[in-house]
Amino acid sequence: MKTKGALLWGLNEAWSVEEIELGDPIAGEVQIRMEAAGMCHSDHHIVTGATPMPSYPVMGGHEGSGVITKVGDGVVGLEVGDHVVLSFIPACGRCPSCASGQSNLCDLGAGLLSGQSISDGSYRIQARGENVIPMCLLGTFSPYMTVNQTQVVKIEKDIPFELAALVGCGVPTGWGSATHIADVKAGDSVAVIGIGGVGMSALQGAVASGARHVFAIDRCRGSVSRHSSSVPPTRMPRSKKRSCRSWRSPGARCARRRSSRSVR
Ligand SMILES: [Zn+2]
Ligand SMILES: [Zn+2]
Question: Does residue 62 contact residue 169 with C-beta atoms inside 8 Å?
């Protein structure tokens, strides 16, 4: 089908919204009508080259949600009309990594930036007669996308699409950096540097882990004050001029362990 996509044709070039040719789902794939997509800083990395791509054009977007419109042969557990979130790392559920609970290391992720589909190695998108590499085999910057079922997660239909999309990258990246990587424990003091989508989620992960104090540090005052309403604070500084705010978690009062950890 013909639709549109936001493409990059080279390093440090502007995004170009133009017509693309999108393949119908083959075995193991579904087609999705996109309802929401997030712009992650990792999308900007492919503009600057911080995330090297094998070639261009590249279609951006690895965070998104939508509704399944077509289902290919052999797809299990997904049907037309399902609301879904896209995962920028596939999870087959059967490889050694998936079987041991580490689906973030799924074997199918080896070709994540190759642009070649998991299903049969073909390119599912063309523009100006050339094969297009969809970021993380997704490419959510389009009204429609065709993707392997291992990158699709079904969700309840009452979850707003714009919130669901964020769970595809920013929320688990930030939340997990506090709860898993920094391993925040009750009573810890935590500094989160940068309060964007990832930082805000790290802040919430720290609060949920029982951190005694969470320091939100950002160069942009508006960023801190804008996000502060998402976390129920028990104590906040009165000054609105500071760009560093702190929160104390209600559950931290009984904490015995105190240490400092930082989350970037
Ligand atoms: Zn991302
Ligand atoms: Zn796997």
Answer: yes
Taking the CA atoms of residue 30, residue 31, residue 36 and residue 42 in that order, the dihedral angle to the nearest 10 degrees is 70
CA of 197, nearest ligand number: 1
Contact between 61 and 43 under an 8 Å Cβ cutoff? The reply is yes
pLDDT tens, position by position, 152-172: 999 999 999 999 999 999 999
In single-letter form, the type of residue at position 214 comes to V
- Domains detected in the chain: 2-167 (3.90.180.10), 171-263 (3.40.50.720)
Q: Which of 45, 97, 114, 228 is catalytic?
A: 45
CA angle at 51 for the pair 55 and 90, rounded to the nearest 5°? 85
Is 40 among the catalytic positions? yes
In the block, tokens 């790392």 appear at 89
For residue 224, the surrounding DSSP H or E stretch is: helix 221-228
Active site annotation includes 45: yes
Residue 223 annotated in active site: no
Q: What is the pLDDT of residues 115-129, one digit of tens each?
A: 999 999 999 999 999
CA of 138 to the centre of ligand 2 (A): 17
